[in-house]
Amino acid sequence: MTAAQSRALTARATTRRMLMLVTVLLASGTALIGEAVLTYHSATSLPHCASAAGMNLQGPKWRTELGLRFHSELVACRADGARTALYATVLCTAGVAVAAVLLSRWLPRWRQRKDRLPELYSAQQIVAAVEGGSGNDERLAHLARLVQRAELPRDRLPGFVCNPRALSAGAVTFGSVGRYTVCLNVGLLPKRTTKDRSHFDAVVLHELAHVRNRDVDLAYLAIALWRVFLIAVLLPCLALNAALVFHDRFQGAERAYWDGYEPGAKTALLAVVLTALVYVARADILRHRELVADRDAVFEFGSDREVWRKQVESRSAALPRLRLPRFLRNHPTWSERLAEIDNPRSEDKGGTKLQIAVFLVAYVTIIYSVISWLKLDAVPAQTVIYLAYLLGPLVIATGFAVFPRRKARSAAEASAARAWMYGVIWLISAFAMNPFANWAQAEDDWVTQASVHLREMSDEMNEWHDGPAVSAAVKDRAVGWYERGGSAVLGRFDKYLPDGVAGSDAAGARCAALGATVSDALELPVFPDSGAGGKAWKRLLTSTAEAQALQCRSGYDLDAPSEDAMVSLRYGRARTALRQLLPPQLETPAADGRPGGAAGALICLVRPALYLRVAGGVATGSTHVVASAGNGG
Fold first, then answer.
1. Is residue 193, in this structure, part of any structural domain at all?
2. For the residues of 385-429, what is the DSSP string, one character each?
3. Which domain range does residue 204 map to?
4. Where is the Peptidase M48 domain (predicted)?
5. Is the pLDDT assigned to residue 584 strictly greater than 50?
């Protein structure tokens, strides 16, 4: 393999690592910024939205959560605010990227000004020495020969400075595009004139390899990305989360949040995982570039590998030290560097399991962010469907990128293999992923709904066995609840809830009617009975809202048996709960088949044997009659 081919393979490995770092940082930054923006938006806008919708957030938790998900005015207010929050998140993420680029350009200048390092030779002096103008300066001529061995282009020739405070025999490189500087430690300079001259040459050639490979730019960009992520993303997110948790938990001022966006341990755990992910990606590229510089210094510039072997022996003789795991270190050990020289692996012979794991976690983070915005109606559902079709090719392409081919192919073979790969990717995306996802969702939904239904049946049997235990005060409050709008809302549920299967003939009309009914029901006072009546009311609202949301969502398939069955199951549970709250009507049905015509009164019965009171206040039996004028109640 020629040096040019080896360099190309090495560059491919570096490109993949840099792509991994940028992908992870954008995914992590977007997720954490979005989480913080949505939490802040939830804490500040929800009270105003609830007040405008006429909903009380101080009721039972299930009722508040149901209102946040299904109250029409609250949902609309939430969607409007979420779109604004989405724009803010995108702008903040773009600002983080711009800040990282600016910081990567400013850091090397700041370092040179901060340290005020004395200059040995400027870049212009090195250029002149390379062209034969070193004069009698032996050290300048020596550095010029090393620069020539490194085959640096003219516009990339560095200057040299000295760090008088660093006594070790090492060096570092910093700078920006076109203005690179190699900083030689004061402990390295004497080795140039001793028998350890090969050590001096190896260290300088290693740093010149960094300059030739543009590792300085990559390193400062990686460092800038990491620092901006910590300062502009992680710390504000954790500070906001801690402030809200402290305010809610320790000052007794707990507030409601949009569903899933309350502060707490979930946000802290997400921040820890994503921070570790960014750190691992950053460490991987920094560690890799050190190994590449070693390989170039030995195999392309002619450095003596015995220098690395002596360093390993001297480190082995020293006292052992505790070290971080390899994937967490920014710099390889001398043993790892010697192993790379003896058996070069920095060429792109394939990625690592760590890389594919980091890529996949980054993709999961992106999906998590998209789902978060989708739940708030800030992202159109069709956009998410398109993104879902791209998920399969993205994952498969990641596999091909991390584990590339092991042997070279001809151009024709490569073209045919590429066409075959693209065809398989799109076939999997179009015909396998989406049906499988729907099947998995349906299976999970059936299991969940079956367990909930069995639990509710068990509760009802226990209540029937034990009998109701309702106090007189609860009975009085229940009567008032029915008279102040409860009866009218129950009548609307009775009118719009389907009796049997969900069906598709009137689905469009039912969507709007049930949505408005659920919203009005959530504005009623809290149901006064926390026992059987309260559970039935909760089940009625929850099941109706879930069925209405499923049937009225974009993309609902009216002819799909699985989806129709799930909707019908929820409607059936809602109808069962309604029968517990609204016994058979006593009034003669009107012409439309429903109780109480335009001139009549709708007479509703409260659940038998639960609230023993008649309109006049005398308990005469096991039913209660409530009169409500009009045909809507």
1. yes
2. HHHHHHHHHHHHHHHHHHS--SS---HHHHHHHHHHHHHHHHHII
3. 115-214
4. 143-343
5. no
